[in-house]
Write a structure and sequence with these properties.
Elements: H1 11-14, H2 17-54, E1 67-70, E2 73-76, H3 80-105, H4 109-125, H5 135-163, H6 169-197, H7 205-223, H8 225-230, H9 247-263, H10 267-297, H11 302-330, H12 332-351, H13 358-385, H14 392-400, H15 409-421, H16 424-429, H17 432-442, H18 447-453
Antiparallel strand pairs: 1-2
Length: 462
């Protein structure tokens, strides 16, 4: 016996300004972890822990030539961080699909959002305990935190369809991304202050890093309360009945099987996902590897890297808003394609930045900040137009498997290129291929036809 579909609530009661404001606060909450931990601190810090384990007697300024053994496989110290992100993504690729199916059947999606976010925040805060050479614990905590970040964002992104009409989604998504960059920037500014005055406070440099890691987890946990409380009246719906006798797990597997079959009936949705797989892998690899590239290839210290990312954050705040305005005039698809051209030029510029040239590096950071927020925000709103009603979370689980901090083609290519060449410069240059291929595939997506096939309302501009 199948359960009848749960009727969708009146859109007018969900698409309110209050809900749209509460929605954006989750970008503010999780961006602290993405920025402070994922982008700036954890890759260099995990590399330092791994180096301390592989070469405990290494003198300052010397390079570590020894390999670490991970399950019998030799791994270069400099590849530990990108490989860890790769592992987190491979796990996410499977787990997030189940999260999406569960979320579409969950009666209170915001409770699920909060639960996943708080587990991730606990893992992020626990990075405070990383010290000495215990890089293995760091790998575990990164995998858990990144997995929960992706899983919670599956639920979060699906709520965009509930709180914003097709014509409002570019604006709502762009403002939420902008809010995230602002929040991440504010916490990072506080982190920079601690890194600057740690000696006068009587704490070591390592302790300052650990306290900053703790602050990112606490920030994520506390500010998640705003969307969870603000969107508490939104109830789950499903357009696909499932067998009650199958149970939670069996019903979820059945729904996933049906969704995979249905996906073939939405070729433009599938084509968009393929394009996103490539260009977002490029974006995420640049973001997650920027601090590693700056520290290892260009010789910048952690304080300089924090200044760089802080600049990127505040520039990205304005960039996301500007891209939203441009999309309202020329359409989101054209705006994203223009952004991918800019990404290609930015990476090429980064390749030629001389070692120690901090001012030139900051110019590169301004270009990254300008293009970063807009392409990500508009990709989310574009995809939301192609998602069938009632399966938002499931379809966003496919999307999130390739979202921020979960790219695996890019990080794997980055890590392999470093291991083969011993240099981060060719490794960063490899990401250009992802922008080019993704952009070419995106040009083949017919948004109007895809929106019609998904049964959704046509916006004025796409």
């Amino acid at each position: 016996m199948t359960a009848p579909p749960v009727p969708r609530a009146d859109p007018a009661s969900e698409r309110t300004r209050a809900h749209q404001r509460a929605f954006g606060w989750y970008d503010w909450a999780n961006s602290a972890y993405v920025t402070t931990t994922g982008t700036v601190l954890i890759a260099p810090y995990l590399t330092a822990l791994a180096r301390a384990d592989a070469c405990p007697d290494l003198a300052e300024g010397q390079s570590c030539e020894r390999m670490l053994s991970v399950l019998g496989v030799p791994v270069a110290v400099g590849s530990v961080a990108p490989y860890t992100i790769t592992v987190a993504t491979l796990v996410s690729a499977v787990v997030l699909l189940f999260v999406g199916a569960v979320a579409d059947r969950h009666p209170r999606p915001t409770w699920l959002l909060g639960g996943l976010a708080w587990v991730g925040a606990a893992a992020a805060a626990s990075m405070f305990f990383l010290d000495g050479s215990n890089w293995e614990l760091g790998v575990l905590l990164i995998v858990v935190a990144n997995l929960c970040l992706g899983a919670s964002t599956v639920v979060y992104d699906a709520l965009l369809v509930r709180v914003a009409s097709p014509d409002d989604r570019d604006r709502v998504s762009s403002r939420a991304w902008a809010l995230g960059y602002l929040g991440g920037g504010i916490l990072l500014a506080l982190n920079l202050g601690l890194m600057t005055v740690h000696e006068s406070l009587g704490i070591s440099y390592t302790m300052a890093v650990r306290l900053n890691l703790l602050s990112a987890g606490l920030w994520w946990a506390v500010f998640t309360l705003i969307p969870v409380i603000g969107l508490r009246r939104i109830r789950g719906t499903t357009a696909t009945p499932v067998e009650r006798s199958a149970g939670v797990l069996g019903g979820t597997v059945t729904q996933l099987r049906d969704t995979f079959g249905d996906l073939r009936g939405y070729p433009h949705t599938l084509l968009f996902l393929l394009a996103y797989l490539f260009f977002n892998d490029g974006i995420q690899t640049v973001i997650s590897s920027a601090s590693l590239y700056g520290s290892e290839a260009l010789g910048f210290d952690t304080s300089q890297l924090i200044i760089t990312i802080l600049l990127v954050q505040f520039v990205a705040f304005g960039g996301a808003l500007v891209f939203g305005v441009i999309a309202g005039r020329v359409g989101a698809k054209r705006t994203v394609l223009g952004g991918l051209v800019m990404w290609t030029l930015v990476v090429a510029f980064a390749y030629f930045v001389p070692t120690g040239a901090f001012t030139i590096w900051l110019v590169c950071a301004v270009f990254i900040g300008t293009v970063m927020g807009g392409t990500q925000a508009l990709s989310r709103s574009l995809y939301s137009q192609l998602v069938p009603t009632g399966k938002e979370s499931e379809y966003f689980s496919f999307y999130q498997a390739m979202e921020r901090g979960t790219s695996w083609f890019g990080t794997l290519a980055f890590g392999l290129t470093y291991q083969l060449t011993g240099s981060y410069r060719p490794a960063i240059l490899v990401t250009i291929a992802f922008f080019v291929v993704g952009g070419l595939i995106l040009t083949r997506v017919d948004m109007r036809k895809g929106i019609a096939m998904a049964g959704n309302e046509q916006p004025r501009k796409v």
